[in-house]
Amino acid sequence: MLDKADFFALYQQLGLKPGCTLDELKAAYRRRVAELHPDRRGADADPADAARLQELTAAYNAASTFHRRYGRLPGGTHSAPRAPMPRAGRVAQPLNEEARPARGSRRWLWLALVGGLLWAAWSSGVFDGTVDVDGSAAPGRPVGATATAPTANLAGLIILGTDAATVRALEGRPVMESPQRWDYGPSWIAFNDGKVSDWYSSKLRPLRVASAHPPAPEPAAH
Q: Where is the J domain (predicted)?
């Protein structure tokens, strides 16, 4: 049910934005139900309102299930839990060095990812002159030899043709996922045969890409 629900269409119909609270969603849903309910409009009721009301209720129930499962609405963020207040007469002790989270763990993870991309580029022949950066055979390459195009550029950015595994490593788990499209809040990435074919990077949740949309293909030379 969660995979089929169009949460962003639900927000638009209710006049909300991703990141709204559960109380705001409930209030907007009740107002919209009152507008579409046939008992309120009587003889002037639109027959299509019953179908709209059914779709609205299904999407609202899916959003409520998502909130119960993940502690947030689709497209929102987790709220940081409050630290417990120390009891009277006791002084909270600072964390010792062993209990503190290791600093730089994200930096090492990023360096390991970049190193893996560099290794993939080197093994495909980009640095030894046998393969161009775009994956085509460089001048002097033996006839019949094949080349593998890189799935991300050397800066660790998603490009057209990036495979799904690299996208997951760079962006993490999407809010909604299907073979043709992954949604990351208001941003999304489209796939064709497991390769990136299009994307939209919103300022509210920017992706690891160089621009909001992929560059337009260059016209073929005549």
A: 9-89
Q: Which region, left, alpha or beta, applies to residue 121 given φ > 0 means left and ψ of -120 to 50 means alpha?
A: alpha
Could you give the CA distance from residue 91 to residue 5 in angstroms, rounded to a whole number? Answer: 49
**Stronger pLDDT, 6 or 24, i.e. the higher one:** 24
Nearest to 122, CA basis, from 112, 133, 111, 137: 133
Q: CB of 106 within 8 A of CB of 112?
A: no
pLDDT for 103 equals 61
| Domains in the chain with CATH codes | 7-70 (1.10.287.110), 108-200 (no CATH)
> pLDDT tier at 214 (50, 70, 90 boundaries)?
very high
- Whether residue 131 contacts residue 138, with contact meaning beta carbons closer than 8 Å, is answered with yes
Average pLDDT over the chain reads: 76
CA distance 95 to 158: 39
Q: Which residues does 38 contact at the CB level (< 8 Å), separation at least 6?
A: 45, 49, 50
Could you tell me how far CA 129 lies from the centroid of its own chain? 35
Phi, psi of 184 (to 5 degrees): -120, 80
Token pair 């073929």 is found at 220
